[in-house]
Amino acid sequence: MIAVDFLLLLLLVIIAVAAISAKDILTSIMLLGSYSLVIAMEWVLLNAVDVAFTEAAVGAGISTILMIAVLTRVPRFEKEPKEQKHFFNLFNHSELLALATVVITGALLISGTWDMPAFGDPNSPANSYLSPEYIERSYPQTGSHNIVTAVLASYRGYDTLGETTVVFTAAICLILLIRSYKKNER
Amino acid sequence: MIEFIADKYNFWIAIVLMMIGFYAIIAKHNLVKKVIGLNIFQTSVFLFYISISKVNGGTAPIIWHPEGHAEVVYDNPLPHVLILTAIVVSVSVTAVALGIIVKLYKNYGSIEEDEIKLIEHNEPELDSK
Predict the structure, then answer these.
(1) Over the stretch B5-23, which tens digit does the pLDDT of each residue have?
(2) Contact between A126 and B24 using a beta-carbon 8 Å cutoff
(3) How deeply is B2 buried, as exposed, middle or buried, from its count of CB atoms within 10 A (0-12, 13-18, 19+)?
(4) Structural domain containing residue B107
(5) Is residue B101 part of a domain?
(6) ipTM of model
(7) Do A48 and B75 touch (CB under 8 A)?
(8) Which of B51, B10, B17 is nearest to B36 (CA)?
């Protein structure tokens, strides 16, 4: 399992770098769609089946369609910045600064994982506190075989209502943003 | 040493993905590219959560034997629920960001951040349009 897991994660990193560095935005968008599909596979591997469903439908489906729809309105190719490039002709000055920031932040975050419980540790705080109670009680209390569904729709029903509110707010924002106010405006 | 790497590499790769997204957000001038970077950043956070929820030898959190008391080990279902909500919210964020990009292109005729800044600097009256 670890070998497949590692290969999928490596593939994710490669796709992410390719999506960031492509000059054609359409290529970037399609690579992002395949990225979502690969991460859905990773979640089937890590037994998060409900999350895999949602990611394959929403991440790989809807957000790709949204981005392509936007690309019909805006230019397809990214413009090259005119600054001079250094470092094997790859980065210009502002990009080097960004790279330094990213590397330092990443190093700090990775040093933070030193104290974390191991991957798959059954006695880690996240897996030993509270979640056994949910696993034990969800079927007798809600009658749902799927614990994730039981928690989502029953124990955290208000949270799901809040999620729906977020989607509703986003829809209102979009209507206000791109509605045409004049008659001939597209 | 090998054991230590096997214990932690999931978190490390989540951080690497997060930094790739972060780099796109701060270094790229194209606004659609920034949104793509934001998407990668969000997904890396999801990967971190789902990695925490894995239990060795665990199966998907769906009850196998409702009546009996067979010893089945389940993965932690709570992070899965959080991430289900977060995926839907992340798509909402993407949709609003893309809507703003369309509006910006209508007003400025460009989706490159530095060009928009230049136009704004030269013709401040465009803001009120």
Answers:
(1) 888 888 999 999 999 999 9
(2) no
(3) exposed
(4) 2-59+72-128
(5) yes
(6) 0.89
(7) yes
(8) B17
